[in-house]
């Protein structure tokens, strides 16, 4: 039998069959001889035999994948797979990754530039997020500030997000990088959502000015800071700012400050809150996550 098998293998190898021809032979004789034996005879990789069948069953996945990648340029293949599933496409991670390579949908990362100014004479505030597990809405907010180049001038954007839901709580965009800028973002957040238990930031002077700290303390909010030189201790806000830059700022040419405010508002309040899914939230949007949290809270209250 081994001699006969080797003879057949040599004959088929010498025939120089194309992959399509091998597939056709295997499909024709699979019930009689089995796929494993036929692949051995034809010296064909089993995965290559099934590859085209997967590719042919596109069903619009490729077009929708490209659409998602254009809308959310920082999505990797896992995030795109989850978004496709939300849009009622049945697809696994491997073909998504393959399609992304074929379409050259490569994530291009630009370096994030911090804008925080540190003062050595400022008090070292503790990092309260290291000590407490944040599991509810409005338990803790995280704040950060970044710059945006309009071409003819720089403007500055402080943002406050909810640590639990990643939802935007407050923001403001203006030309002046001062403590007044962060005050405006904080005032918006307090008016719309009331005070959290903890306000977390880096040791930047804008967040540790006397007036800003006094405002936090007057609302009963505990001040929390990442350690000096440890920006990733404010990682949730750092990642949020990076996403904002990659998916909005670097892709848009703003005409002026008013145009920047309008388009950034759209990204923060519509795209980020209601369209962009987050792996850390179980692949739902911040708005969906918060709605589920409130429903759970109401259910518990009703049951009690």
Keywords, please?
five-stranded mixed beta sheet, 3 domains, 50% helix, alpha/beta, 12 helices, Nucleotidyltransferase, domain 5, 304 residues
Fold and architecture overview:
This protein is α/β, with parallel strands linked by helices and 304 residues long. The protein folds into 3 domains: 2-56, no CATH class; 61-102; 128-299, Ribonuclease H-like superfamily/Ribonuclease H (Nucleotidyltransferase, domain 5, 2-Layer Sandwich), CATH 3.30.420. Helix content is 50%, strand content 10%. The chain has helices spanning 2-14, 19-33, 35-42, 46-56, 61-71, 77-86, 93-102, 179-193, 210-218, 235-247, 257-275, 286-303, and strands at residues 140-149, 154-162, 168-171, 198-201, 222-225. Strands 3-2-1-4-5 form a 5-stranded mixed beta sheet, with helices on both faces. Helix 9 links the parallel strand 4 (198-201) and strand 5 (222-225). Helix 2 (19-33) runs antiparallel to helix 3 (35-42) and helix 6 (77-86) crosses helix 7 (93-102). The longest helix has 19 residues, at 257-275. The protein is elongated and about 80 Å long.
How are the SSEs placed, and which strands pair?
Elements: H1 2-14, H2 19-33, H3 35-42, H4 46-56, H5 61-71, H6 77-86, H7 93-102, E1 140-149, E2 154-162, E3 168-171, H8 179-193, E4 198-201, H9 210-218, E5 222-225, H10 235-247, H11 257-275, H12 286-303
Parallel strand pairs: 1-4, 4-5
Antiparallel strand pairs: 1-2, 2-3
